[in-house]
Design goal:
This is Zinc finger family protein. The chain has 715 residues and is an alpha+beta fold. The chain has 19 helices and 20 strands. Among the domains are: 132 residues, Immunoglobulin-like (Sandwich); 210 residues, von Willebrand factor, type A domain (Rossmann fold); 79 residues. The radius of gyration is 30 Å and the shape is globular.
Length: 715
């Protein structure tokens, strides 16, 4: 074996080593030859130092160090003795040979780690590449067409239209109708069928929405009327099956984790325009790698890349091991060039969703861009700052549109040059969230937070209904942020269309009523709260006919008035969101002084409320958030650079009561603590502790993250 190996190196004339797994019949002599795990990248004819002409496949001198390496393409460890060749590029970064060879085959000539442009690339010959039906052989008798043989091919001069080459490759294979999506996981369909046959009571005991109500005060004297009496309706989604097992100290296997949640159809629409070159695109690829790694075989993914035009990299594919590898290789083949056509990217992403033959229970689109659409949106002005933004999103997925399709677009504005107003509008119209990624290094954590929620959907199509129980009672208003509300003409009934909830996610709505004078009884029934929703796992409808019955006491004499902290802090949240919207409107009209004044006044008012005085975390965070927004309105330049995006991301978060990523200020590390779910926390933690070549402790990650609020139960 040792003699054969030396002959191969001499014949190749390169400082490269290619580890070929030994046959069962071959036993290498450890005394005369190094073991496969100890093969070094050297020869008797050259230096051991890598040079531009001497990069190739090699194994590390130190097995321990090699075991810690991770292939940046497939994100798995590179260990010797597993039958995988390891390729070292001229920039000294290593990959699995089959990963990098396939990556190069897609046209990429840049190192996925350091973005260095290679002068030579690995090229894996096909086994079918034969001459007259017979495999070619080398002088040593080894088949040159064997899958382990590699050829280093000198690259031609760089082309300015490299992106055009890849674009035409994918567009040439695109059908007119995207109905080529892969079939759903049959194992999941079987599990779904079994789940749907379970007893309804058993299902509801595990996956039932919790409904709590709080009144502004617990008692109103009989002889007193009370206008705009506030009632808080609090909802909390159930656990996923996997988290429930963990809470009960049951071991959770990867398969049980997959079976305990609803699978997703996810389309990512990625900006690869010229401004995304270098570090930005590298970090997006890494973030996409993290997303792909955390999808299960029952999940399906499609990736759309857009610049001046848009292309579908591959159809909706199940994320099996093969599907993940193909997805990683396609993502790593991306190069940046051209303009920014967000509308075309979204059009193609929505088309993937609409044309699909099969549908997973959950679906969503993730949009990322660092620029402004220069192809669709017409010029804006101070008097018309939102001109044509609706035209960026196909009308078929407008949240309150006539089609009924619910496909939220979660938009991520990257850097200081993106069009925050358009990205916020896209997310708002579709029912998604808008995140502002100010620092490049937090893109993966922002994606992690988003998919942490998407991979934990436990409630769909949730609708909350309220009905007055007293004959003289009427509903005055229903405050629900961005959610659609409806009050019947007689003001006796109202509803809120909530939609999807992630596991353990919370929602709070305020209902006001006018309480009349009533001397007939010592207790008054106010409202009945009910809700109905669809369980995405069973596809069955769960109905809670009387989830909560709201009552108050009607004593003869008024006692000490004690305002509910829960109601007070939610009123503060709505007040803060209204102030943010008013300040943003003033800033867009050029009046930054008024914008700052509105935020300052609101912060002062909040600081004097009972909940803030009691040290409530949400209220303290709201005051700090308002102060942060004031700082980002210090000047027109600061507002244009980061203030607008920061405020819009905050409005998106408060509107949907859902976590978003905002900025990179360490001073705002504790803002908006009430919206992030445990599943999001788990995914972000996994992202931050993941090692990609450098210790996680060296990563400078500064992002606004939030934690679930601790809520006392009503007495």
């Amino acid at each position: 074996m040792a003699s054969k190996w030396r002959k191969v190196k001499i014949a190749l004339g390169l400082n490269n080593c290619l580890y070929v797994p030994p046959n069962d019949t071959e036993q290498p002599d450890s005394s005369s030859s190094p073991s496969p795990a100890g093969l070094l990248s050297h020869s008797s004819h050259g230096s051991t130092t890598p040079t531009p002409s001497s990069f190739g496949l090699r194994l590390s001198k130190s097995p321990n160090n090699n075991n810690k390496r991770t292939c940046a393409i497939c994100l798995t460890s590179m260990k010797t003795g597993q039958g995988h060749a390891i390729f070292m590029a001229e920039c000294s970064h290593s990959f699995h040979f089959h990963c990098i060879a396939s990556n190069v085959k897609h046209g990429n000539q840049i190192c996925p780690v350091c973005r260095a442009k290679w002068k030579e690339i690995p090229f894996q010959r096909s086994v079918s590449d034969v001459t007259h039906g017979k495999p070619r052989t080398s002088a040593l008798g080894w088949p040159q067409d064997d899958a382990w043989m590699t050829v280093l091919r000198r690259l031609p001069p760089a082309r300015t239209d490299a992106n055009r080459h890849i674009s035409s490759h994918y567009q040439a294979n695109e059908p007119s109708i995207f109905d080529d999506d892969e079939d759903l996981d049959p194992q999941h369909e079987t599990a779904e069928g079994k789940e749907s046959t379970r007893d309804a009571g058993d299902v509801n005991s595990v996956r039932t929405v919790e409904v709590l109500t709080y009144t502004e005060v617990s008692a109103v004297p009989k002889s007193v009327s009370y206008d705009n009496f506030t009632i808080l309706i609090h909802l909390k989604a159930p656990l996923t099956g996997g988290r429930q097992n963990r809470n009960q100290n049951h071991a959770e296997s990867p398969q049980s984790s997959q079976d305990s949640r609803a699978p997703i159809d996810l389309v990512t629409v990625l900006d690869v325009s010229g401004s995304m070159s270098g570090t930005k695109l590298a970090l997006v690829k890494r973030a996409m790698g993290f997303v792909i790694q955390n999808l299960c075989p029952s999940d399906r993914l499609s990736v759309i890349a857009f610049s001046s035009t848009a292309r579908r990299l591959f159809p909706l594919r199940r994320m099996t091991e093969t599907g993940k590898l193909d997805a990683l290789q396609a993502v790593n083949s991306l190069v940046s060039s051209g303009g920014t056509n967000i509308a075309e990217g979204l059009r193609k992403g929505v088309k993937v969703m609409i044309d699909r033959k099969w549908k997973n229970p959950v679906c969503s689109i993730i949009l990322l861009s660092d620029g402004q659409d220069t192809y669709t949106v017409s010029g804006t002005s101070v008097t018309c700052p939102r001109a044509d933004y609706k035209s960026l999103l196909p009308t078929s997925i407008h949240r309150n549109g006539s089609t009924g399709l619910q496909i939220p677009v979660h938009a991520f504005g990257f850097g200081s040059d993106h069009d925050a107003a358009s990205m916020h509008s896209i997310s708002e119209i579709s029912g998604g969230t808008f995140s502002f990624i100010e620092a490049e290094g937090v893109i993966q954590d922002a994606f992690a937070q988003c998919i942490g929620g998407l991979l934990s959907v436990v409630v769909q199509e949730l609708q909350v209904n309220v009905e007055c129980l007293h004959p003289r009672l009427e509903i005055g208003s229903v405050k629900a942020g961005g959610y659609k509300t409806n009050i019947m003409a007689n003001a006796i009934m109202g509803s809120v269309d909530v939609g999807d909830l992630y596991a353990e996610e919370e929602r709070d709505f305020l209902v006001t009523v006018n309480i009349p004078v009533d001397g007939t009884s010592d207790e008054m029934s106010l409202l009945k709260v009910s809700c109905a929703y669809r369980d995405p796992m069973t596809k069955g409808v769960v109905t809670l006919e009387e989830a909560s019955h709201v009552k108050i006491q009607r004593p003869e004499i008024a006692g000490t008035r004690v305002v509910s902290i829960e109601v007070d802090k939610q009123r503060n949240r709505f007040r803060a969101a209204e102030a943010m919207a008013e300040a943003r409107a003033a800033a867009e009209n050029g009046d930054l002084a008024r914008a700052v004044s509105v935020l300052e006044s609101c912060g002062k008012a909040l600081s004097e409320t009972a909940s803030t005085q009691a040290g409530d975390r949400l209220c303290i965070a709201l005051c700090a958030e308002l102060k942060e927004m004031q700082d980002r309105m210090a000047s027109r330049r600061v507002y244009e650079t980061s203030g607008r995006a920061y405020i819009l991301s905050g409005l998106s978060s408060h509107s949907w009561q859902r976590a978003t990523a905002r900025g990179d200020s360490t001073d705002s590390a504790n803002l908006t603590q009430a919206y992030q779910t445990p599943s999001m926390v788990d995914m972000v933690t996994q992202s931050q502790t993941m090692v990609f070549g450098t210790p996680s402790s060296q990563r400078k990650l500064r992002q606004t993250m939030s934690f679930p609020a601790v809520r006392p139960r009503p007495r």
